[in-house]
Design brief:
alpha/beta, 5-stranded parallel sheet, 7 helices, disordered C terminus
């Protein structure tokens, strides 16, 4: 077969090195899951601005325990909703990372925003033993007081876990390993997801293209990772 008779290679999609660097990422999860630390490291890793909604509330309205004590939980949730609404709307304007407080998921308006197809919601999970180690001396309003904070944390998680799962694009465990390891896992999963979607768009425009590589080549998350439909 001469060179002119050899079949031409079928097209393949052009791939960006780190597509996750253009993501709009929201972190959700229970108290003590490490969302603020993970969000900061994730923003540094991807070169994205990071916003912590609890820090925004504190900056604008004062310490959260004082808001609970002086104005009550209902008023705090109103303040939280307004801050979260603004932060998530800004996230749609440009890539970035937003870390939400553990109870922000309770608001139906927040859940609706998190379901926007442009936002990648990463649910951070920890087990009870990890939470217990982190809750020692906790000043979190809903975990303070005479009640066993670990038992209260378990009750909050049982109430909120279905809500976290309902909005999650990906679910990542932060039980073992340093936060940097969790960040690496998130970046790998988001990169695989976005490359799979990039290939799907390319394949739709080029039916003759080669089939996508398997999940192990970084194009899609492993099947045991949670993803919302």
């Amino acid at each position: 077969m001469t060179a002119s008779e050899q079949p031409l290679p079928r097209p393949v999609p052009p791939l960006r090195p780190v597509p996750a660097a253009e993501s709009r990422i929201a972190l959700v999860g229970p108290p003590a899951a490490g969302k603020s630390t993970i969000g900061r490291l994730l923003g540094d890793r991807l070169g994205l601005p990071m916003t912590d909604t609890d820090a925004e509330i504190t900056s604008r309205h004062g310490p959260i325990p004082e808001i609970f004590a002086e104005r009550g939980e209902a008023r705090f949730r109103e303040i939280e909703r307004e801050v979260v609404r603004r932060c998530l709307r800004r996230l749609l304007d440009r890539p970035g990372v937003v870390s939400l407080g553990g109870g922000a998921i309770l608001n139906p308006g927040t859940r609706a925003q998190l379901l926007h197809p442009a936002i990648r919601v990463v649910s951070i999970e920890i087990d009870t033993a990890t939470a217990a180690a982190r809750l020692h001396g906790s000043q979190r309003p809903l975990l303070a007081g005479d009640e066993d904070p670990v038992r209260r944390w378990e009750a909050l998680l049982a109430e909120r876990a279905p809500l976290y799962r309902g909005v999650a694009t990906l679910t990542v465990s932060a039980t073992s390993g340093p936060p940097s390891t969790v960040v690496n896992r998130i970046v790998d999963l988001l990169t695989g997801l976005e490359r799979a979607e990039e290939y799907a768009r390319f394949a739709a425009a080029h039916p003759e293209a080669d089939p996508p590589p398997c999940a192990g080549d970084g194009f899609a998350p492993p099947p045991n990772e949670s993803r919302r439909p």
